[in-house]
């Protein structure tokens, strides 16, 4: 098991204006699993992802992750511990690519590999998302889908244990989005990277091991894809 959450809640504000983003969520994610989060805007998907990624903290409940046989508490961890966790163990992909226009695809990925402990080379990372021939192109010379795949390569170049993707196809048309999602699935399959993706692109459900639907801050439905049962151990 990589993640375990129990009674996870998040409240923004207080009193009559309080917003309950998460309401007592219980969740387990297995090592190597590919999980998709579906739900309407405001259902709690991004809040859940941000807590798992150490970008936000819970108001109550527990969120733990397992590394090197040890349980680590994300809930209540200080800023230094969360920064170290994000830097060493988590790769993020967002809707907007956050690439540096004056750099090539290779140089954008190298920004991560230059500071990581045991990175793959930029060439290796870009080859995994089928962009080897485009690695020396500048951002403006790449399509939207190619730019997002550079962002994916940058996220996985440090060999993270976990890849968290928040609407990675939100700025793309459906066909291009499928290409990007296939690249994410390839990373999950070939590297065994535990992957959690927020998306409105329903076809990705067929790629995932498990689909969780959220509403009003709760997980209201969980569907396991029988054709893609995760091979990783479910033991905590």
Report on the structure:
The chain has one domain (33-55, 86-228): 3-Layer(aba) Sandwich (Rossmann fold), CATH 3.40.50. By secondary structure, the protein is an alpha/beta fold. Strands 6-7-8-3-9-10 form a six-stranded mixed β-sheet, sandwiched between helices. It contains six helices and ten strands; from the N terminus they run βββαββαβαααβαβββ. The radius of gyration is 17 Å and the shape is globular. The longest helix is centred in the C-terminal third of the chain and has 18 residues, at 174-191. The termini are close together.
How are the SSEs ordered, and which strands pair?
Layout: E1 3-12, E2 19-29, E3 34-38, H1 45-52, E4 60-67, E5 70-73, H2 79-89, E6 90-93, H3 105-113, H4 122-128, H5 144-156, E7 162-166, H6 174-191, E8 194-198, E9 210-215, E10 218-224
Parallel strand pairs: 3-8, 3-9, 6-7, 7-8
Antiparallel strand pairs: 1-2, 1-4, 4-5, 9-10
């Amino acid at each position: 098991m990589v993640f375990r959450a129990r009674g996870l809640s998040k409240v923004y504000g207080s009193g009559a204006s309080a917003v309950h983003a998460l309401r007592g969520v219980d969740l387990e994610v297995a090592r190597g699993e590919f999980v998709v989060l579906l739900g309407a805007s405001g259902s709690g998907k991004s809040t859940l992802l941000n807590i798992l990624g150490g970008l936000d903290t819970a108001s109550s409940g527990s969120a733990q992750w397992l590394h090197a046989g040890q349980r680590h508490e994300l809930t209540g961890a200080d800023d230094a511990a969360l920064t170290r966790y994000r830097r060493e163990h988590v790769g993020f992909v967002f809707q907007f690519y956050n690439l540096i226009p004056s750099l090539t695809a290779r140089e954008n990925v190298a920004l991560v590999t230059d500071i990581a402990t045991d990175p793959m080379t930029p060439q290796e990372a870009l080859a995994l998302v089928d962009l080897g021939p485009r690695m020396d192109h500048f951002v403006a010379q790449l399509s939207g889908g190619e730019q997002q795949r550079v962002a994916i390569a940058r996220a996985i170049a440090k060999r993270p244990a976990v890849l968290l993707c928040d609407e990675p196809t939100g700025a793309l048309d459906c066909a291009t989005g499928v290409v990007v999602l296939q690249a994410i699935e390839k990373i999950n399959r070939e590297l065994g990277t535990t992957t959690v993706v927020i998306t409105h692109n329903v076809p990705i459900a067929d790629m995932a091991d498990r689909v969780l639907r959220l509403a009003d801050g709760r997980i209201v439905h969980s569907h396991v894809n029988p054709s893609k049962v995760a091979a990783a151990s479910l033991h905590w």
